[in-house]
UniProtKB/TrEMBL annotation:
Taxonomic placement: Bacteria, Bacillati, Cyanobacteriota, Cyanophyceae, Oscillatoriophycideae
InterPro entries in UniProt: DUF4344
Polar residues bias locations: 313-326
Alphabetic keyword roster: Signal
Stretch list, region Disordered: 299-326
Annotated protein name in UniProt: Metallopeptidase
Organism, scientific name: Oscillatoria acuminata PCC 6304
């Protein structure tokens, strides 16, 4: 697509950039294509739960890797477990926030391309079927070919993993809103898109290359998804914004994060147009809002008492939304 080629040519990167932290282990992208089958335990493999504090009122976070239902899913789940990427994110979460309830993060086959937070079980379910669907979409639209030859190259496999990573933080946003009883003004789906984007953009451990790949991969996913919808009527009544709207909202946050970045001005002129001038304020406003919402739950903020400042029950007792395609 024209806009992807333009974005790739504009995002000029230094040759000395550090490795993409998402793929630092290397095993994940290999497991997307590897022919040999790894030996996978027949029972779900569980990362030892991390105690969030020395207080019985504080919850624990655990990561559970279920056996895949097919060979490539087994290889992928094994790669996720061995790479420890999400285990490290859980450790960062436990070191940063008090949670009043336990939280489980599961990787498994679901029979559909989806990811969701179950507020009843307090569980984030990451369906590897979703990753396969993203990869298929990128292969059908030749993302690797479209990105080749530019300053920023993203393969189909890498792009799919990056989007899967973005989705994880999207679902984590749902979990934090529920467990921490955070108020949401507006549509929650928009709020957690913003949470995921801001978290990844403001993370100092993410290189500029990673942030640029995050932008291109996520936008490509929304664009290709919208094109795949074809003439089918958009779900105007749905809880999500349209793919095109989500695309431009994330693009605005990326631009607002660093308007001086190489290529940012051209991106703004070509796509954001009249909205570009508002994006820096929009980014800072949303970042400040999320910071303020999470501040009362930050570990060791005011004391070392080991207790959360908010032990209210979750505000959303709704049933599991496992049919929601994120």
């Amino acid at each position: 697509m024209r806009w992807i080629k333009i974005a790739a040519s504009l995002l000029m990167l230094s040759s000395s950039l550090t490795a993409n932290p998402l793929l630092a282990q290397g095993s994940l992208s290999r497991n997307l294509r590897k022919e040999t089958v790894e030996v996978i335990p027949t029972q779900p493999t569980e990362t030892p739960p991390i105690q969030l504090a020395q207080n019985s009122r504080d919850g624990r976070v655990r990561v559970v890797y279920h056996e895949g239902t097919d060979d490539r899913s087994r290889r992928l789940i094994n790669g996720l477990r061995e790479g420890g990427i999400f285990d490290r994110r859980v450790e960062e979460l436990s070191n940063g926030l008090y949670l009043s309830q336990n939280l489980t993060i599961s990787f498994q086959n679901c029979g559909q391309a989806n990811a969701f937070y179950n507020p009843v079980a307090r569980e984030i379910v990451m369906c590897v079927d979703l990753l396969w669907d993203i990869l298929k979409l990128f292969e059908e639209n030749n993302l690797t070919e479209k990105m080749s030859g530019g300053k920023l190259e993203v393969s189909n496999e890498e792009g799919a993993l990056i989007v899967f990573y973005f989705v994880f933080f999207h679902e984590l946003g749902h979990a934090l809103i529920d467990i921490l009883n955070l108020p949401v003004v507006g549509r929650e789906e928009d709020a957690v898109d913003q949470f995921s984007s801001i978290l990844l953009l403001s993370n100092t451990t993410n290189t500029e290359e990673m942030k640029n790949k995050l932008l291109v991969s996520t936008l490509a996913w929304f664009l290709f998804s919208a094109e795949r919808r074809g003439d089918q009527q958009p779900a105007y009544w749905g809880q999500h914004a349209l793919e095109e709207q989500r695309l431009y909202n994330i693009m605005c946050l990326w631009y607002g994060h660093n308007p001086e970045a190489v290529g940012a001005a051209e991106l703004a002129n070509s796509y954001l147009r009249g909205r570009a001038s508002q994006c820096p304020r929009e980014y800072e406003s949303l970042r400040a809002a999320w910071t303020r919402l999470l501040e009362p739950h930050v570990r060791n903020r005011n004391s070392s008492s080991g207790s959360s400042t908010n032990n209210n029950a979750p505000q959303n007792p709704a049933q599991s939304d496992s049919n929601r395609v994120w």
